[in-house]
């Protein structure tokens, strides 16, 4: 059978998304939902490998897509060691780091493992693309102000890099020709300075930057320390307050921007204040990244789910239009981004990277 398809795999905490592409054309996509009781059987995320692999095989069989029709399999990158962006071949060393969760345990760690498992059935390449562990910081960006706490690069790299490639293509340029500030606006908010294709600085969306639908963002440090030592909360309760019950949820009891806008349309002034404050913090953070690129910015890009909100986008634009032209790419198509990363390698537009060559692995 002719080999012509790319299978993309994106494991999440309660589902596994799968898509089949022919070139850049999406042919089929499906979300495999996992029951809580099925996942509870497994102590660690990596233990779910066989369970999820068999479900993907069943889906391929149901769709009459034999594995010998695949030219490559690409999976969502997990919490690997700090690494430059790009499309990576899934190697044994990468698999080992994904299994142990070198920077933490997360469902996305299964992406490369599942891709390799399926690819090895047919002796075809397995890839990952721009994982959250992408780290292209200049050394100066790592300095925080407290020696024991360096700044880290944990970033929505897959979507940020994808929209940079998209903008470059629209301008008939290469990603290496452009300086961009990209704001990924979703459940977490990453605002990145992208210098000639490299993310040289970004807020850690889990801990810093603007507050988001469920994350607190940067807080007054003194008051935060007092709260931590107040005796009112355990460490796990504090972590939940900062990521999970912070941001919009802390003020309004919802993480849904659409619900907030409905409240605003009904005259809720407090909801308006909080939503405007989030836009204000986003605009301020974007402005903070303009000097990182010395003001030489080709475009500012707004992307992610929240950029569907005209209300939010308009308020952000009012603050930042003077810096550069603002481009809006609403949403986040992770499956398309995974496929495009694989296609760039398949088509010879990009050289595949080897994990061991790009990171420091201590014996």
From TrEMBL:
Chemical reaction(s) catalysed: butanoate + ATP = butanoyl phosphate + ADP
Broad class of enzyme this protein falls into: transferase
Keyword field contains Transferase: yes
The EC number(s) this enzyme carries: 2.7.2.7
Keyword terms: ATP-binding, Cytoplasm, Kinase, Nucleotide-binding, Transferase
Superkingdom of the organism of origin: Bacteria
Keyword Nucleotide-binding: yes
Gene Ontology MF annotations: acetate kinase activity; ATP binding; butyrate kinase activity
GO CC annotations on file: cytoplasm
GO terms of biological process kind: acetate metabolic process
Family to which this protein belongs: Belongs to the acetokinase family.
The protein's name: Probable butyrate kinase
Native species: Tissierella praeacuta DSM 18095
Lineage: Bacteria, Bacillati, Bacillota, Tissierellia, Tissierellales
């Amino acid at each position: 059978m002719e080999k012509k398809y790319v299978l993309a795999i994106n494991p999440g905490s309660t589902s596994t998304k799968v898509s089949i592409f022919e070139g850049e054309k999406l042919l089929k996509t499906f979300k495999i939902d996992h029951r809580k009781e099925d996942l509870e059987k497994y102590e660690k995320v990596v233990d779910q490998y066989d369970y999820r692999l068999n479900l993907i095989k069943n889906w391929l069989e149901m769709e009459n897509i034999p594995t010998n029709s695949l030219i490559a399999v690409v999976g969502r990158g997990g919490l690997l060691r700090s690494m430059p962006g790009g499309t990576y071949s899934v190697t044994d060393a990468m698999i080992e780091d994904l299994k142990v969760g070198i920077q933490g345990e997360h469902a996305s760690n299964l992406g490369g493992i599942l891709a390799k498992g399926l690819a090895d059935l047919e002796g075809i390449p397995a890839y990952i693309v721009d994982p959250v562990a992408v780290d292209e910081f200049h050394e100066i960006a790592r300095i925080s102000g407290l020696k024991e706490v360096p700044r880290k690069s944990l970033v929505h790299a897959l979507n940020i890099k994808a929209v940079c490639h998209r903008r470059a293509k629209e301008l008939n340029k290469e990603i290496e020709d452009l300086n961009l500030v990209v704001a990924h606006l979703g459940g977490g908010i990453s605002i990145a300075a992208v210098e000639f294709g490299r993310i040289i600085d970004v807020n850690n969306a889990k801990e810093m930057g603007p507050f988001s639908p469920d994350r607190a963002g940067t807080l007054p440090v003194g008051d935060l320390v007092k709260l931590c030592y107040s005796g009112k909360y355990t460490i796990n309760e504090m972590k939940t307050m900062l990521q999970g019950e912070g941001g919009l949820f802390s003020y309004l009891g919802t993480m849904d921007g659409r619900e907030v806008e409905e409240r605003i349309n009904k005259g809720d002034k407090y909801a308006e204040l909080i939503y405007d404050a989030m836009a204000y913090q986003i605009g301020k953070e974007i402005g903070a990244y303009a000097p990182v690129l010395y003001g030489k910015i080709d475009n500012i890009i707004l992307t992610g789910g929240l950029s569907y909100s005209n209300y939010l986008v308009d308020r952000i634009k009012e603050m930042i239009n003077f810096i550069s032209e603002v481009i809006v790419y609403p949403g986040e198509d992770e499956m398309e981004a995974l496929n495009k990363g694989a296609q760039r390698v398949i088509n010879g537009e990009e050289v595949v990277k080897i994990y061991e060559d790009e990171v420091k692995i201590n014996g």
